[in-house]
Structure formats: structure tokens, C-alpha cells
Structures
1.
Amino acid sequence: MTLPQRIVDKLIIGDCWEWTGATTTGYGHISIGHAGDALVHRYVYEALVGEIPEGLELDHLCQNPACCNPDHLEPVPKSENMRRGNKGRTRFVGRERVCKRGHVGMYTQWADGKYRCRACRSTA
């Protein structure tokens, strides 16, 4: 199966296949008619590789939730996906948080109660 043109038109093809369409928490999503919505990386993987085995989810090996490159996606159990640090936009190295741009140990709780990277916040 090949990808519909409406999907291809919203991808920037490089090492990662960056989704430029609608996103939710960084993950691309599309409407697939009466079937509802789908996460784009899952749709692309199933169209080009095959069905995702039951009980597994796709791990973005590149750590980029907008990436749809099937070579960057690996079906793994949820526990393995979380262990690898894909639970959110931050991961832990030892006991230190690492932001999505790779700054280690720079997280601070701000007045609104959210944690943000000091280095990224100061350049924003």
C-alpha cells in the first residue's frame, strides 16, 4: 500500500519524516472519515510496514513525536517504551532530567507550577 497524497503533502522528508499537519502533544493526527481520527505515525507504519502487533505500541527511536519514518518506529510493550524515556518531553539520565533539546539538570518549577528547562526558557 502507498500513502495517500494528502499525507505525503504534509510530510517533510529527511532523516525524520516530519509531520507538518495537525498535532496533539507533538504527535500528528488525521481524520480517516467515518473511522474517526488516527495518529499519523501509526497510520504510516501500518500502511508501509504492516499491522502493529496487539499489545505493542510504537516507540520513536529518534525521540521525535512528529516523525513518521517507519525506520524510526519500533513496536514495543508500553513498559519498554516508557523505560526508554518516551513518556513525555523529558527523560531522566540517572536522577537528572534532560529536556527535549538535551540540556541536563536544568529543570526548575515555575510560578505556574509547571517544570521548564531554564536554558530553553531563557532563549525563548
2.
Amino acid sequence: MTELCIHLKKETGWSKGLLYQLVDNVREYAIFVADLDGVVVSWNIGAERLFGYTAGEMIGRKADILFTPEDRANNIPEKEMFAAAADGVAEDERWHLRKDGSRLFVSGLQTALYDEEGQHTGYAKIGRDLTERIEAQRDDLKAFETVDERVRERTNDLHESFEALRLEVGERKQAEQLKAALLHRIVRTQENERKRIARDIHDHIGQQLTALQFRLQSLLTKYGNDRAITDDLEELRSITNQVDSEVDFLAWELRPPALDDLGLVPALKKYVTNWSSQFNIPAEFAGVGLNGKHFVPDCEINVYRIAQEALNNVAKHAAANRVSVLLELRDATLGLVVEDDGRGFEPDGGDLMTGDGRGMGLLGMKERAELLGGSAEIETAVGKGTSVYVRVPALFDEEKNLHVTT
């Protein structure tokens, strides 16, 4: 603790006694000091609160008991000290162990300590418990996965109903008509559910996040002269802004308002831009021969979802460095091409027709194209990237196009 206080005293000019009191009484952050061998020499009340060990139980013991068995097996404690010694500071976010064996997710900062003569004497570590945030994100992801699972289950139920009807009718033409009707019903059900969930996310979670941002700004104004508090508030505001951005992207993925308000071309262009930013993959969008044309709602939503599914497959499986999306109107045909330079896959290996994972997504694209009287084709090879080609009849929304031209 002496070395830490010397370091802080140099940085802040505060007295050593005041610094001792500050560090020892911080409850929201675990702060402890270890020697060059990783043996704990000081342990504040925040560390006791987070990890469950008292100062008497920890001082004299190596700090690596706070790491998980798998991290100890991989020499993570030693690697952190080595990084701090080499660079002066080492940051990490990982799972740690409490005294009772339970796990907590800690954002940590380890700093090398030096005495007044510049000799390396040990390390100071500051950690913050982010377990609630990580578990909340996990719960949110699980909730969205549950929604998708329910949609898939309902889809499977409708497919089973179609097969039963096909057998009863016994004629291929009637069976195809029933299939188309069921698939249209699936699409409408999915879109209605997506629209409802997107609206709920925007109305409830979005409003709560906005209220939280206003409250944080109010607290920043109130405690503007207290650097320690404002630093924490700024960090909370940054986290809130990040969550707000991710919630907006989720709502956009579920149902983009621009698709209803502005049409397919602006909505898809914006989605490609947002997708590129979200997954940090360069992506280009180009529209050819469209001239501001609007298409019927079924055409726009299905082409949009095909493009969305293709890009989701890229994010999940392709490991691509670049993606291009082309939407082209030629004669009476609307064409969509999504290409990536990723790892590709073997099309004869069962990926296209499996009932889960990427195969389910590709099958869904094919079905959506067929709903519009069109087709979807996949060209791919291992190490050669993947191209998705979709061609559907261009069914125009004459009423909207009339407003555009006038």
C-alpha cells in the first residue's frame, strides 16, 4: 500500500495519510497491492466486499487464488504481471473466484509500482464487479434467442401442417398452393411479431435508457467539482450510450421503420451501413436502375429479409474482410447479389439443406424468393468466398410510385 500511496501522492499531491484513508475505504472497487511474487501485502474493504476474503485472510497469500482454475492453468496471473511490468499497466476483463467458490466478472487494471528510487517493488490492482451487467446482457441475448426459437417452432409446426394438407389433397398443384399460403402466413406472423417486439424495445427500453442518460447528466452537473464521482458517472454514461446503441440496432434488425416509410432501397442501404459498423466488416451497397421505385410490401420485406439473412450468415460464418450488396432493377426483374471474400464452404457437404445453422438460413432465403415467384442461388467454394444471387419479379407499388413521380 505504501508504494501505491507514493505513486498516487506524486500524481495528485495529496498527503499519504489521506491517500491511505481513501484507498482503504473505497467500497465499489477492489484495491490491493502485491509484491513481485504476487503475494498480497495490502487489501482494502472493497476487495473484501467483492471477493469475500478479509485482509487477514489474504495478506501473505498469492493473489492467483482469485483466478479460475483454467486461468491459473494458462498462467494468466503471471502473464498479467509480466504485461504490467513491461508496459506499466495491464487491463483485462475476465471471470474470477470468490471465497465461497462462486464466480464474478471483474474489469481489472494492474499497475507496476516503483519506489522513490525507481526500483520495481510490486503491483497494484484495481477491480470492479461487472457481473450484473454481463448477466443482464446474457439474459437479453437469451430472451431474443427464445423469441427466435418460438418463431422456428411455429415455422416447423406450420411446415408439418403443410405436409399433412399436401397428403390429404393429393395433387401437386393444390399442395403447392397450400405451401405458398402457409409460407405467406409464416412471413406475416414473423413480421408482425418482429414489429411488435421492435416497438416494445423502442417504447420501453429506449425510454428508460433516455431517462437514465438525463439522470446521469443531472448528476454530472451536480457533482461537477468531484473528479472521482464524475469519472464514475462518465463511465456509466459511456456504458449507457453503448447499450442504447445496441438496443437501437436490435430494434432496427427486427423491423426497420425506413422500410415502411421510405421503401426498400433506403432501408437496405442504411442496414448495410449499420451492419458494417456493428460487426466491423467493410461493406458496400450499390443500387442500379432503381430510380426511387417502390415495390409492393411483400416484395420489399422478403428481399430485405433475404439480404439480412445473407449478411447474418457472413457475420456468423464467413470471417470475411469485405462484403458487397447490389440491388438491381433490369427489365421486369429485381436482382439482389450479396458477395463476400470469406472462407466459403463446400456446397455438397450438406450445408445447404441441413435443418439448422447456416443451412436453415439458406433454405429460408430460397423459400422467400419462391414466395415472390423468383429464385435464390448460392455460389461458394472453400477459401473462395460466397455469393448469393436472388431474382424476383419486380412488382411495383403503383400508388407510392405515383406520389414519387408527382
3.
Amino acid sequence: MKQNFIVPALLILLMMVLPVSCKKETLSDLSKESIIPKPVSVTSTGDYFVLKHKCKIFVYGESEEIKQIGQYLTQKLKSLTGYEAKIKTASGEPWSGNIFLELSDVNEELGDEGYELTITKQLVKLTAVKPAGLYRGVQTIRQILSSDADTTSKKNKIWKMATGTITDYPVYAYRGAMLDVSRHFFGVDDVKKFIDYLAFYKMNVLHLGLSNDQGWRIEIKSWPNLALHGGSTQVGGGKGG
């Protein structure tokens, strides 16, 4: 009787395990990443680049601007992943496990702020015509990595980027947001954080609202009458301050 019960039970267990063990591994899809604004084109190749702690940032050429962008990327990677990537000057063909930044005029359609990001299983290469384009591409790298970030478990986390190619350039030349400081003052750290958000979403203009119909609120010592007279009235003509 006991043996008759065990056999059906084993069969049921086997039927439950087989579908799980035979399930295909889910491939990556770069086109499904949350990249803002939406890129002009995304081509996915269905694999992953794994960012490791020994990753280096290679820059082609001696341009000070490219080095600054590379340094900026290392700071953001450290903040996000905890990895301390070093900046190196690239020469010859790129080699595995690293991120490469390069200026090239091969694709002039990219313009001043466009970029091409190529992610393979071996490496990541970011190319642009101008430094501003590299800077925008760095934000895309940040967005891809941030989409899978969990700051509470950095230590054992595997940082992956879906493979493929992203080609992107802005549709609108002016892309900005306003921070109203005419009535509501913000600390320096808050303003810096706001600017970092603008950069993260590839905006290029910070509009500071310094004045309104009640007057000019920012003290400029060389132009004292701006605040003295400009802030002397309120809405309706009453006394300001």
C-alpha cells in the first residue's frame, strides 16, 4: 500500500520540476530599457555586458574635456556600484571588460549632442562628434545601470547592461526646466541636485526664476537698486519688501 502511494507522488513531483528545469533562459532586450528621452533608434543583440570592479574608463586622445567626462563617469559609477574605475588613455583596439569614450566625425548626423552607444558582451563603446554628445551618452549608461539598481545590496550585485546599439540625438535644441527661486529659496546642495536631475534626463538649460511681479529678490551688491526699488511693492500696489 505504501509503495503504491510513493510512485504517484514521485510522478507528480517530476511533472512539477520538469517545466521549471526546461524553461529557457530569458535573453536581454536593450529596447525595453527605460531610457529617457526615448532614443532615435535601439537595436538589441540579446546578451549582456557584465560590469566588474576592475573595469577601466578608456578615453581616446588628450582632450581635457573628454578626460573630465571620463572622470564624471567614474564618480557616477562609484556612487551607483561602489566600483572605483580608473581613467586610462586608449591606444589601438579596445579590449574586453572596459568602457571606451571616443570623439569621431564619422556620423555627422549625430550633431553636437548626439551619440552612439555600442554594448557588446566584451565591452562598451561610446562615440560622439562633440564632447556634449559623450556627456549625453554617459547619462544613458547611468540610466541603464540605474534601472536595475538596489543600493541596499551593492556588495554581491552583478551589474549588467543589455547588449546592442543605441543611436540618439535630440529633436529639440532647447530642453530645460525652471527652478523658481524668486519666492522660495533653495540651498546650494538642492540646486546642485536639481541640475544633476536635468543632466540625467539630457536637458541642457537651467532656467532660474529670479524675479516675478512682486520684484527682484536676489541681492547683487554692484546693483543695489534692483532689490531696493524692484522689491518695494507687492501685487495690487501695496508696500513690498
